[in-house]
Amino acid sequence: MSSERPSAAGAPSDGVVVPLRRPGAGGPGAPGAGPRAAADAGPRATAQAGSGVQAGSGVQDGSGVQDAAVALARLLARGVVRGTAGSARAADVLGRRGARLATGPGADLARRALRTGALLGRRVSGDYEVDELGFDRELTEEVLLDLLRPLYRRWFRVELRGADRVPRGGGALLVSNHSGTVGIDALMTMVAVRDDVPGGRHLRVLAADIVLAAPVLGDLARRAGITLASPDDAERLLAAGELVGVWPEGYKGVGKHFRDRYRLQRFGRGGFVASALRAGVPIVPVAVVGAEEVYPRIGDIAPLARLLGLPYVPVTPFFPLLGPLGLVPLPSRWVVQLGEPVRTDLAPAGTADDPAVVLDLADQVRESIQESLHALLEQRTSVFR
Fold first, then answer.
1. What's the CA gap between 63 and 68, in Å, rounded?
2. Among 8, 155, 254, 300, which has the minimal tally of Cβ within 10 Å of its Cβ?
3. What is the pLDDT of residue 37?
4. Using one digit for the tens of pLDDT, what is the confidence trace for 108-157?
5. Which residues form the Phospholipid/glycerol acyltransferase domain (predicted)?
């Protein structure tokens, strides 16, 4: 049953919490549900209409953007002072104004501005949804993924191979090698699954607790669908029919020395395999080439890492030597290869509780990824082209 999170005094609500649901079960937790699917859901639907354009509406130059911006400022200010009703009205008015904009010079900018205004209105009013693990579908689709796409498309020029190996419905576990010093490979894989895999599904990433505990970053991670790398969360998501991504090497993989690039580290005890077996979902091996060269780690500032409570503070050829400029990732060219799925639904009952079988299957997945990495590296002619 849905319930609204309590909000701090004087602060906007954190949205309406909806339970995880199996795909096809309907409701806000199902794929495609939420604000985009709520065609007749009041202010949210009216605001969403502003993201489209009605032909023949008569406005050809996008000149309504300034008026809409003024309306946004005034109405949101009233909403903060008077409560959520004014904010909902802001979204409604902006949506109706956006629906009058037509194609022409400035129209794309106008539509984006109006979508952003309507989204802000819903944030203030609490008229949006998060699932029980904190995933905010609208914010992820309209803001967070948009911020990552320039990196994915233009900077790293990611090429996805084997996209048809991800099921279009039902749960699946994507298991990948880990690299890049800061775990940027997980973010790029999220974009790849959303944009370039048929069906446009979201990848729910399992991350270390240090990510979710970080100020600001932790909240954004939750909103993007990232959750704790624990068997409970993994099995809950898989049982709900979600795509789940896991990087079993952990810190050993993402933070390894540059001389060890593309050499897979140990996969631990194979907990991800046990979760897939219990849910009866396929395991899709994922090999990523290109991320090792983003921040080549050649050393570590161990005293600073201990002071900050971090597993490491990397030294790269450009950081900390060049200061903030050294934080710019190198524009390596990436390939993400999805391998043949490993079926788990045919395994005998109780297999998930047999450590020997679980470790053996984990080793098979690891070997599959390592073989794909070797093949991709042999095909690669240049790191940056």
1. 9
2. 8
3. 39
4. 777 777 777 788 888 888 888 999 999 999 999 999 999 999 999 999 99
5. 172-291
User: At residue 50, does pLDDT exceed 50?
Assistant: no
245 Cβ contact partners less than 8 Å away, ≥ 6 residues apart: 173, 174, 175, 176, 186, 189, 190, 193, 203, 204, 205, 206, 286
Nearest to 293, CA basis, from 375, 383, 385, 177: 383
- For each of the domains in the chain, give its residue range(s) and CATH number, in order of start: 19-26+34-129 (no CATH), 137-294+329-379 (3.40.1130.10)
Torsion of CA 222, 6, 238, 265, to 10 degrees: 30
What's this model's pTM, rounded to 2 decimal places? 0.77
| Beta-bridge mates of residue 131 | 18
Between CA 25 and CA 104 the distance in angstroms is: 40
Average pLDDT over residues 282-304: 96
Provide the β-strand partners of residue 203: 243
Q: For residues 275 and 277, give the distance between their C-alpha atoms in angstroms, rounded to a whole number.
A: 5
b/e per residue 285-303 (b: at least 16 CB within 10 A):
bbbbbbbbbbbbbeeeeee
How far apart (Å, rounded) are the C-alpha atoms in residues 95 and 116? 11
Helix, strand, coil shares of the chain, percent, nearest 5, are 45, 10, 45
Closest residue by Cα to residue 264 from 278, 250, 274: 250
**How many other C-beta atoms can be found within 10 angstroms of the C-beta atom of residue 116?**
15
Residue 349: pLDDT band by 50, 70, 90 thresholds? confident
SS3 267: coil
**Interval 48-70 mean pLDDT:** 42
pLDDT of amino acid 205: 97
The owner of tokens 């049953």 is 1
